[in-house]
Write a structure and sequence with these properties.
Structural class: alpha+beta
Shape: globular
Oligomer: single chain
Distance between the termini: 12 Å
Largest sheet: 6 strands, antiparallel
Number of helices: 16
Length: about 500
């Protein structure tokens, strides 16, 4: 099966023909992005190009995918409840707030809004929970050339609480892979290549939130960067919202637009360009780079103080910090929010080792372990977007520099995952077109709408796979490290 799937039976000429068709299909059907290029246009973006993608889908065992899907509703509920718990956030993040100005800025906004009273109790969360398939015994393989289920375990990498991307592009990539399999003469079943349209599910969450706001003339505001290379993925969501309800108007604005043109009415409605905003969907604002001046911070505060529903709220964004992930791995932390023992087990079964770097004996011990065995750990700051983690000797050097200072509290230490290796063709600028050893990361999308203790929507709505050359540490697609992929589901 694996041999056929990855095109070993095809000649080089046949593979190049499939590649040619695949690129045109990707351009025609929106598997594209706009790479940064300061010389190509005045706004800093070149014309749309194919997003990096794999020529064929990659194998994922059914049990692994099902396990990831089965725990998503549990994770949605957990992360929502964590975000509502001010005291837990305060205690968990206190060391990070001291040394990380970005997290401190978000925390200050949260505290100001909380003190004056939250104007909008309803919140929308569009999550993506990222996992890898950790190989526990590389000596075992099946006839398909991959380890059996008994030698694989699902391990969580991170849960994205803001700007969970690629739901749009990945749905189209699944259709692309059905086409390339057809061109390669590979037969497949619906079970092996299931329908997958996470953008429709995320858009459904937006529509539900807009309806909950209750004003038919109000708009959905996409908060975006002034230069946005991943605009097509965002447009997919916009078009899916229109597909579900063509009466909803979507506008795109930056933080500076909010600062210069938005205001709050007497009853705290968010108004910009004479439009009342029902929902703010943040596709920007997840990194320190988004806030180069006080203007951007004041714009974020204005939105958080408003009656508009936020996706995410600032406290939900804070709950996505790696420090929260590490604190939730402590005994009793998940149980504080989830009473069902089966749900707790589903969540905890995916946890990798997490270690605090706070000042004190526990943090000192973690630093020593990482410096002594740098290949066993990853150093992770409180950042989204890819390209921030430190590995191996780079991690060791950084810890030797900061390991005895409070600056280490800006990071957490995580057990390193050794993911399932496979072979595929990655179509990516600067990468030769050849059969390559790859590893993949599995993402599950979730939708949650809540208000206080009330859970209004809680569901999972699809999956994505992103693959990278084996030995590449980082995994971001826009950051240039990985390629869009989809799971070919097998029983092993």
């Amino acid at each position: 099966m694996a041999t056929c799937l990855h095109g070993h039976h095809l000649t080089d000429e046949q593979l190049l023909q499939i590649l040619d068709v695949a690129r045109d299909w990707a351009l025609t059907n929106g598997v594209v992005y706009k790479p940064f290029s300061s010389k190509d246009s005045k706004d800093g973006l070149s014309q749309a190009q194919c997003a990096p993608f794999s020529l064929f889908p990659s194998v994922v065992p059914q049990r692994i995918l099902q396990q990831a899907v089965d725990c998503m509703v549990d994770f949605n509920r957990l992360m929502y409840r964590v975000a509502q718990d001010h005291e837990f956030l305060k205690e968990a993040l206190k060391s990070v707030i001291r040394v990380d100005p970005f997290v401190r800025g978000l925390w200050d906004i949260h505290c100001k809004v909380r003190e004056e009273g939250i104007a909008q109790p309803v919140s929308l969360d569009l999550f993506r929970n990222d996992f890898m398939m950790n190989v526990t015994d590389s000596t075992k393989t099946t006839d398909a050339g991959i380890p059996p289920s008994s030698a694989l375990e699902l391990k969580q990498i991170e849960l994205n609480t803001i700007s969970a991307s690629f739901a749009g592009l990945i749905g189209a990539t699944g259709h692309l892979h059905r086409y390339t399999l057809d061109l390669a003469g590979k037969t497949y079943s619906e079970k092996e290549m299931p329908d997958n349209d996470p953008a429709l599910g995320l858009a459904g969450g937006m529509v539900n939130a807009w309806e909950e706001y209750g004003t038919k003339s109000a708009v959905i505001l996409f908060l975006v960067s002034s230069i946005e290379s991943n605009v097509i993925d965002q447009r997919w969501l916009e078009f899916k919202v229109h597909q579900l309800n063509h009466n909803i108007r979507i506008i795109r604005r930056t933080l500076l637009d909010i600062h210069s043109r938005a205001s709050l009415s007497e009853d705290q409605k968010l108004i910009i360009d004479d439009c009342e905003v029902a929902l703010v969907y943040l596709r920007a604002g997840y990194s320190h780079d988004s806030y180069p001046s006080d203007k951007e911070w004041s714009a974020r505060l204005l939105m958080e103080r408003s009656k508009a529903i936020k996706c995410p709220t600032v406290q939900s964004q804070l709950s996505g910090c790696k420090k929260i992930q590490q604190e939730l791995a402590r005994p009793g932390a998940v149980e504080r929010y989830i009473s069902d023992p089966a749900a707790v087990q589903r969540i905890r079964a995916t946890f990798a080792g997490q270690y605090s770097l706070d000042m004190g004996p526990e943090g000192d011990d973690a630093v020593k372990k990482a410096i002594a065995s740098p290949d066993k750990y990853v150093l992770k700051p409180q950042r989204e977007g890819g390209g921030h983690n430190l590995y191996g000797n780079e991690m060791k050097t950084r810890l030797e520099e900061i390991g005895s200072t409070p600056q280490r509290e800006a990071y957490i230490l995580m057990e390193r995952i050794f993911p399932l290796p496979e072979k595929n063709y990655l179509i990516k600028t600067g990468l030769p077109f050849t059969l390559t050893d790859i590893v993949s990361e599995l993402g599950i999308y979730g939708v949650h709408i809540g208000s206080g203790e009330k859970e209004m929507v809680n569901l999972h709505c699809g999956h994505m796979l992103r693959s990278k050359v084996k030995g590449t540490d980082e995994g971001g697609i826009v950051a240039g490290f990985a390629a869009l992929d989809t799971p070919f589901i097998v029983d092993v």
